[in-house]
Amino acid sequence: MYKKLLERLSAGDELTRDEYLYLIRHRDEARDEAAAMARALCEEYYGRSVFIRGLIEFTNICRNNCFYCGIRAGNEKCERYRLTPEEIITCADNGYSLGFRTFVLQGGEDPYFTDGVLCGVVRELKRRHPDAAVTLSVGERSRESYAALREAGADRYLLRHETSNRRHYEKLHPASMSFDNRQRCIDDLKELGYQVGVGFMVGSPYQTEEDLAGEMIYLRDVKPDMVGIGPFVPHHDTPFGAFDAGSAEMTTFLLSLIRLTLPDVLLPATTALGTVDPAGREKGILAGANVLMPNLSPAGVRGKYLLYDNKICTGDEAAACIECLKARIKKTGREIVTARGDRAERRI
Questions:
Q1: What pLDDT digit, counting tens, does each position of 234-262 carry?
Q2: Do 123 and 87 touch, CB atoms closer than 8 A?
Q3: Cα distances (Å, whole numbers) of residue 178 to 183, 207, 298, 335
Q4: In degrees, to the nearest 5, what angle opens at C-alpha 241 toward C-alphas 236 and 247?
Q5: Quick check: 200 and 222 in contact, CB under 8 A?
């Protein structure tokens, strides 16, 4: 039965939640065929290209207290830092010289970065590098804030929804955070014309297989431009420090299902996947992913942006070793390219 379901997905048919659940429960049998179909579909839209994004983790100061996150406000052991606007620009300049044409500014919800400060950074980036895309990943803000940042030149926005299940959301976040507000933010971003990325952790505490099937329906309905998923990895200084990590195998299978569900989506093989499995990013590419996000952050702070334990933050995932990363990806039959990497139309 799983073959028929995969064939239907690949042909553009919509599956029910129960049908997705069947595939998830039979993932061991379906994995190889799903990955092969996902790779083929990805190549119809993107050829052999793998896009790179220059990740700039510019602040680990955050007002929120998400139970899973190492930079949560309540973690008094976290060594805090904040890059200046000038330092952010320098990171991007260095990345541009290395061939990056998308910059991802990611940080906690740091009150210092008001609309005025952040809009100034975005404008300067676009002035210096008009052929590059600017992606923001700075959490929940007002519609007015999103509109101002869009007006300043921001092209894309990443905001993981974390879970489409309200009950599950409330187990992952304190009462001060709202499931409805997170969804409001995603709706606002789409309406304002951003290329929008959502996503969730695989194997997060209290997550069920039924929840994962629900995520597939959610993604199909929202139709995001990007989807970022990675295995949950615990951080020892959080309430979830004793929970088991999510699996690379489940993550790569879900990458294949996402590609089959949303053929033209931009789909990263994430750092978290590379953290739980040294070959995780290559496995992600082979499962249908087509984006990598090497780190452009200064070496002195790279080890401080620890959302979870054992995060890889030196070596091939660092932007300065892009040639090493190109060689690793070439072994998968794909090729890292210098391009903005916008969402594509079908090629063949």
A1: 999 999 999 999 999 999 999 999 999 99
A2: no
A3: 9, 18, 33, 40
A4: 110
A5: no
Q: Tell me how far apart the alpha carbons of residues 95 and 118 are, in angstroms, rounded to a whole number.
A: 19
CA dihedral 313, 317, 319, 320 (to 10 degrees): 80
DSSP line for 93-158: HHHHHHT--EEEEEE---TTS-HHHHHHHHHHHHHH-TTSEEEEE-----HHHHHHHHHHT--EEE
- Domain residue limits, the chain: 2-6+29-337
Low-confidence ranges of the chain (pLDDT < 50): 314-315, 348
> Which residues sit opposite 104 in a β-bridge?
55, 135
Tokens of 115: 């609309």
Return the SS3 of 276: helix
Q: How far apart are CA 92 and CA 127, in angstroms?
A: 12
Backbone angles phi, psi at 252, to 5 degrees: -65, -35
Q: What's the Cα-to-Cα distance from 224 to each of 34, 115, 123, rounded to whole Å?
A: 21, 24, 25
pLDDT (tens digit per residue) in 65-107 = 999 999 999 999 999 999 999 999 999 999 999 999 999 999 9
Q: Which CATH number fits domain 2-6+29-337: 3.40.50.300, 3.40.50.720, 3.20.20.70, 3.30.230.10?
A: 3.20.20.70
**Which residue has 């029910």 as its token pair?**
16
pTM: 0.96
Residue 294 CA to residue 74 CA, distance in Å, equals: 28
Q: Are 262 and 344 in contact (CB under 8 A)?
A: no
